[in-house]
Amino acid sequence: MSFSICTTCGVQYLQKLGEIKSCLICNEERQYVNPAGQSWTTLEAMREVYSNSILHEEKHLYSITTKPEFAIGQTAYLIQDQGFNVLWDCITYLDEKTVGKINGLGGIQAIALSHPHYYSSQVEWAETFNAPIYIHEDDKEWVARPSNKIIFWSGESFELTNGITLNRLGGHFKGGTVLHWEGGNDNKGILLTGDIIQVAADRQWVSFMYSYPNLIPLPASKVREMADKVKGLPFNRIYNAFHRVVSEHADLAVQKSADRYIKALQGTLFNT
Length: 272
Description:
Layout: E1 3-6, E2 12-16, E3 40-41, H1 43-46, E4 51-58, E5 61-67, E6 76-81, E7 84-88, H2 96-104, E8 110-112, H3 122-129, E9 133-136, E10 150-153, E11 157-161, E12 164-168, E13 177-181, H4 184-187, E14 190-194, E15 198-199, E16 206-207, E17 209-211, E18 216-217, H5 220-231, E19 237-240, E20 245-246, H6 250-266
Parallel strand pairs: 7-8, 8-9, 9-10, 14-19
Antiparallel strand pairs: 1-2, 1-3, 4-5, 5-6, 6-7, 11-12, 12-13, 13-14, 15-16, 17-18, 19-20
Helix pairs in contact: 5-6
């Protein structure tokens, strides 16, 4: 079936091509409608143009990115942990070659999402790999293609498997979630953040935003709350949604970045 896919955000809808005119995700101040206008595609049409690149990032961690870049251009990650594979965030494009490579790595036992901008074609992935999708209930309203594969979890944390935990930070979206992988980076810990916590250009700092394309910041109180929520998690490394990595002392980078962000909002970081 030719389910409609928004070409700006990459989210797949339940409606067929031609049955939908506007995108729930893009018609909202955290995203945007393409200045050239709303347009749609399907997975079938995409298969004439796109392919996926699967790279080994480090032990038991792979990245999955679509080439050429499509929609937001995010990266998904496949985590291997004691026979339990988690797809963190999702990309729109999926084909038989991708399925074969992932099955060769052990398949997918669970899919977890940071926030609605990366819902993409999550149901296609879930049905292909027979895997449940975990989304925080606070972001339930943004699901564009409902499915019985989706599990809406609640509260501030949810353990997917021993050593892999979802943590709600809020911020960019009310249900904004990061994934803590205790065994990652040789047991020093990895935090996969989507862009709930965004890695800065120098890979030494991070940042936090309500809207990235529209440059709307978060309140100082929310940034402090987010930083406090990850303070107790042991992690040395951060991977964001755009192949940016804070490779060492990422836990300290989050705290010093939150301090800098708050000082900037309060007007004490600089004079201009």
